[in-house]
Write a structure and sequence with these properties.
Blueprint: E1 2-3, E2 8-16, E3 22-30, E4 34-39, E5 43-47, E6 52-59, E7 65-73, E8 75-80, H1 86-99, E9 105-106
Parallel strand pairs: 4-9
Antiparallel strand pairs: 1-2, 2-3, 3-6, 4-5, 5-8, 6-7
Length: 108
């Protein structure tokens, strides 16, 4: 996770794909567009509009790029899944955002 000078949260991760290659996922979201912290399997941030930019790059096992896809969405997955006390973690996250000047709801 990284927040840049324009208050945009960036997050990226890489997973192995079924064919021996890998998939890199890179997302970014303006902090002032987050309206809700929610949870399905993972904790996510939600916006009213499609303010999240997500780019997926698929690589062959030899490292060559197969395809890159960029889309706009309203959900930003953090890939965080606090197993024991997710609601407490989400409340603490909302409190940290509030301390930084961002009023965000927390639903679960």
């Amino acid at each position: 996770f990284r927040i840049d000078e324009n208050s945009i949260l960036h997050f990226g991760y890489t997973i192995k794909s079924y064919d021996g290659g890998k998939i890199s996922v890179y997302s970014k979201i303006p902090l002032n567009k987050i309206i809700n912290i929610g949870r399905d399997h993972n904790i996510y941030f939600e916006t009213l509009d499609n303010d999240v930019t997500e780019t997926q790059t698929h690589y062959e096992k030899n490292g060559n790029i197969l395809k890159t896809k960029t889309e706009q969405t309203h959900l930003f997955s953090t890939e965080i899944n606090k197993e024991s006390y997710p609601h407490r973690f989400m409340k603490r996250l909302a409190k940290a955002f509030k301390k930084a000047g961002y009023e965000i709801e927390c639903s679960y």
